[in-house]
Amino acid sequence: MGNDYEEYLVEDNTSIDIEVSFNKSRMLPRPKIAREGRANSKGIPMLYAADDRDTALAESRPWLGSYISIATLKLKRELKIVNFRSLDKDFEYFPEESEIQKRDHAVWKKIDNAFAQPNIRAEENADYSATQVIAEYFKSKQYDGIAYRSSLGSGLNVAFFDIDCVEVIDLKLFQPEAIKFKFKKLIFPGRPD
């Protein structure tokens, strides 16, 4: 989220400041001020990206009038990524022992849902601790990142453990034109509306 400004020359040697995207170095996490995220603890920088522009824009959780700087990234090397993405969003419950394959699928789906679930951004929020432990485990096994479903876009999110594994090749600035939420009323059995 955010932008820089650049001086733009107009008529009669007058200049104005116009909004532009952040520069290339600012599009990568800043190590000394890394915020807590789904895959990283506070102070440990990781690069969060998406496999399509609209998912990346939605994941920034913009508001009307905000500016979003977007970078196109190019991998510097071949990477080994754990893909948690499950096309099923609903949780499965197995009251009895079932096939190992079904249980494995349910576990991976639950992990994908945990990574996709948006959490409240708060200074003392430990909601990400479970997903951070999972990410740290795969990092210790020499994986380069994790991929998981986006709950805000149709694409795939990727958290890269090494922020130097990509090169910024293009920059653009966006602003949301409309934001639409869809709500459902929750009804619980045995409880009045």
What does this structure look like?
- This protein is α+β, with helices and mostly antiparallel strands.
- The protein has one domain.
- The protein is built from three helices and eight strands.
- It has helices spanning 53-59, 100-116, 129-140, and strands at 4-9, 15-20, 47-50, 68-75, 81-83, 145-149, 156-160, 166-174.
- The two termini are 39 Å apart.
Q: How many individual helices? A: 3
How far apart are the termini?
39 Å
Number of β-strand runs? 8
Query: Strand sequence of the main sheet, in spatial order?
Result: 3-7-6-5
Q: What is the overall pLDDT average?
A: 82
Number of domains: 1
Defining key terms:
globular, alpha+beta, 19% helix, 193 residues, 3 helices, four-stranded mixed sheet, single chain, two-stranded antiparallel ribbon
